[in-house]
Amino acid sequence: MSIGDRPPMTAESPVTDYDARRYTGTHHTVGAIAGDTVRDFVMGKRVERRFQKRVDGVICLPESPRTHFLNFVGRNFCRRLVTNWMGDDGMIRKMGWRMVNDYPPEKQFDHFPAGHFRESWLLKVPELKESGRFMNTHGMGPDCALVHGYVTDKWVEEDTGDHLVMLTVWCEDMDGNIFQECEFSVVLPTRG
């Protein structure tokens, strides 16, 4: 294992509005205090104020032909790449994830530039940093996700002897827009 290694890329099939709800347990407010019940959300006409229900029943942002992914969908795609790569004997110790607002790519700006107090993890990937790429969209249905990873650091913890690696992982749509970035620290089994 070396810094610069890349886990095998994964690809996720198109995500429909129904899939996005199913992946995240229908909705992040369902079952919460003062939140909707599952029945109210699925059967009712009431949705979050910032969304609208089109005549075909799809819930989307106003003036958008597509629905957006709920926040956990891209993060889970990134986590799947990491768990596939680390195998059954590895363990995720920490996970961080970010996304951006739902403006179209041409209206985005770099929300986490170099020097920002929470600069983008994508800056740790040399070709992304050199090309100036950043998260420039929010995941939208029915996009596919191409999930990439890059090993940015590795070390052995002195007190436990655990062998750890740090990975930057990100999701792109088929047009190359980045809609999710994550950072993982992973404990890997030792050889021998």
Describe this structure in words.
The chain has a five-stranded antiparallel β-sheet with strand order 1-5-6-7-4, with helices on one face. Helices cover about 20% and strands about 25% of the residues. It is built from four helices and seven strands; from the N terminus they run E-H-H-E-E-H-E-H-E-E-E. The relative contact order is 0.21. A hairpin with a 5-residue loop joins strand 2 and strand 3 (about 60). The chain has helices at about 15-25, 40-45, 70-85, 125-130, and strands spanning about 10, 50-55, 60, 90-100, 145-155, 165-170, 180-190. With about 190 residues, it is an alpha+beta fold.
Instruction: Based on Cα principal axes, name the global outline.
Output: globular
Going by helix content, strand content and strand pairing, the class is alpha+beta
SSE string, helix = H, strand = E? EHHEEHEHEEE
Spatial arrangement of strands, main beta sheet: 1-5-6-7-4
Total beta-strand segments: 7
Largest beta sheet, briefly?
A: 5 strands, antiparallel
- Mean pLDDT equals 82
What is the distance, rounded to the nearest whole angstrom, between the alpha carbons of the first and last residues?
14 Å
pLDDT < 50 runs, ≥5 residues? 26-39
- The level of helicity is 10-25%
